[in-house]
């Protein structure tokens, strides 16, 4: 995967999160590869993704991981897939099923990072290593890959301040954070606050249940009612899906031409950026993250060391020293669509500029 040319610096790659919990739960991560029997290419990888409302999981993550596992195993490896549809209890059952079916390794993007802990322990007890994907799951995980999540929030906050200019001094913004059950959401929020606090007044702030656009829409309607439509100069939205719900509420209230942030570079988000309805998104190079997850999973399934893959360590609330790879992110605006999602083959110009978006694409030179 070609890394996008305008990458935002990922910051320090070794991230430390507060480590706590009982002596049984905490402690240095033990490399399961040391005790796992050696296997060949004929491996079974369990892939558990959290939901299907956000376009990225079905469109990018799943096929990318499947492709890389095949590549790394001479087409002999199998990926067994399940999507939890934002249901933590269902995801727990899915882990149990995969443990029963004796997969060789699990890649888990947790619906609820804390609630998944017991399921991760079950897998560990069954001798199945676990790669935490995109979200830092609790429990005895063996590896972790994601993006530098505080940098994501900082990137969003910096873009919003740039778009606001002098309006930041007098107006108010609304902050629409992600779900409180997602540890990434807390890191996005912390990164954004580190940039926004003291620079602009935050009139209302929400943690959006389940990241749902409908919930973001309802929250935004509440913020408009409480603050008044003439007082809101911008919106921090933690992702593109919620940005869509927010923009719908803004339009209904007759509020236009204020900057709204996003994340994930969803096609709908990119199209809103083209038309000017959304100011920016954060492009996260999914091919790179997916490739790393597949490399980790295949190595662990084969009983191999992660030393050549993961050069850094991360502490979770329950496990210290988890071998980790954090991938840089990109601030995506209408000025660098060509150099990011098009250059990296995520979308074609024809996909972005289809139908009603063609005129807006022509206007910004996206042809």
Strand order of the largest sheet: 2-1-3-4-5-11-10
The helicity comes to 25-40%
The 3D shape can be described as globular
Rounded Rg: 21 Å
Instruction: Determine the strand fraction and express it as a percent band.
Output: 15-25%
| Number of separate helices | 12
Give the end-to-end Cα distance, rounded to a whole number of Å: 23 Å
Largest sheet: 7 strands, mixed
Looking at how many chains there are and whether they match, the oligomeric state comes to: single chain
Q: What does the average pLDDT come to?
A: 90
- Unreliable runs, pLDDT <50, ≥5 residues? 1-27, 30-36
Task: List descriptors.
367 residues; alpha/beta; 7-stranded mixed sheet; 3-stranded parallel sheet; 12 helices; 16% strand
